[in-house]
Specification:
Layout: E1 2-8, E2 14-20, E3 23-31, E4 40-47, E5 58-64, H1 80-87, E6 92-97, H2 113-127, H3 129-132, E7 134-144, H4 146-157, H5 161-167, E8 179-182, H6 188-195, H7 201-210, H8 217-222, E9 236-241, H9 250-262, E10 266-271, H10 299-311
Helix pairs in contact: 2-5
């Protein structure tokens, strides 16, 4: 039996709990910066039974919704529903609402502001790791569209000086266990060349990220995850739909190729249908209608298996290649 408990705290934070017998999922929204109300981290935490004195720390997943850096709707299909899908399997899940044009103060939307938001979120999770029963060595990230770009940037640049210097900590604290990047933008130069004629989205995103609609190539490469892939990049899960009319799905193929050539473990799943923004693969307006579910919904169980293999390598079956000693 479930029931809701909702509380408006004295500090203005919103707090809610979904209770089930002795167990509960605590949902709490926390401001990450004291002087801002637009950058928030929402928790979806499975709390242990009271009779368990030493609960086992759990792996965590941070969800970054999309929105072209214009918006970051936590309550949309790429935010809370995704976090709850992982929380159902025992992950401690979070949704990060990062700096976007619709909500951020003037001058606070340009990259790398969003990476600093991400760094602050990771430090907040690590600070509360004991209280929230989190294994800090098993924090993975998942992003959609612009959120996938942001997660891609963190996955490929966590070891660079930006975050470590800003927060005065060791770079290793920002290293994710793995990254799941769903219909993401990974190469700004490629995106701008291929997409700006048929859609103004890329130009809008450029303005929010770079401060101008047509940035120089050097700036495009600076904020393109594909240009930062290295042996420091954690394992990556990629998924996209071939009929994506907003971010060409070849971006995911090109990212997979770069990971492959660099020797970074990865999975790539391309679906024939789904367009852009398919999230959990359900029809946004009538999610209860099975005939409106997309085949691309299969990415979620695939991603959960991928995550399990990163968390527990012993779950993988490594067989000897029967052709290893074969030569023509």
């Amino acid at each position: 039996m479930y029931f809701w408990y909702v509380e408006i705290c004295s500090d203005g934070f919103r707090k809610a709990e979904i209770m089930k017998e002795e167990n509960s999922v605590k949902i709490e929204t926390i401001k990450l910066w004291e002087d801002r109300d637009d950058v928030e981290l929402t928790t979806f935490l499975t709390m242990s039974d009271s009779f368990i004195s030493n609960p086992v720390p759990k792996p965590a997943v941070i969800v970054c919704p999309g929105g072209a850096y214009m918006s970051c709707p936590r309550h949309g299909n790429e935010g809370d529903p995704v976090a709850m899908a992982f929380a159902m399997d025992g992950y401690q899940a979070f949704v990060l609402e990062y700096s976007v044009a619709e909500r951020a103060p003037e001058g606070k939307t340009l990259f790398p502001a969003q990476l600093l938001d991400f760094g602050k979120a990771i430090l907040t999770i690590r600070e509360h790791a004991a209280e929230w029963y989190i294994d800090v060595n098993k924090i993975s990230i998942i992003g959609f569209s612009a959120g996938a770009h942001l997660c891609g940037m963190l996955a490929t640049t966590w070891h660079e000086p930006l975050l470590a210097d800003h927060f005065h900590v060791e770079p290793e604290v920002f290293r994710p266990l793995s990254a799941m990047l769903i219909y993401g933008l990974f190469d700004y130069a490629f995106q701008n060349r291929s997409n700006q004629e048929k859609s103004g989205l890329s130009l809008d995103m450029n303005t929010h990220v770079f401060g101008c609609p047509q940035p120089p190539l050097e700036e495009e490469e600076k904020y393109s995850p594909i240009c930062h892939v290295s042996d420091n990049t954690p394992p990556v899960f990629l998924a996209a739909a071939i009929d994506d009319g907003m971010v060409p799905s070849i971006q995911s193929v090109r990212m997979a190729e770069k990971l492959h050539m660099t020797g970074v473990p990865y999975e790539l799943h391309m679906f024939q249908y789904g367009d852009h923004g398919f999230s959990l693969g359900r029809n946004l307006f009538e999610p209860y209608r099975e005939e409106k579910a997309h085949a691309c919904a299969a990415w979620l169980p695939l991603a959960k298996t991928f995550l399990m293999h990163q968390i527990s390598p012993e779950t993988t079956d490594i067989e000897k290649n029967p052709f290893a000693d074969f030569s023509l």
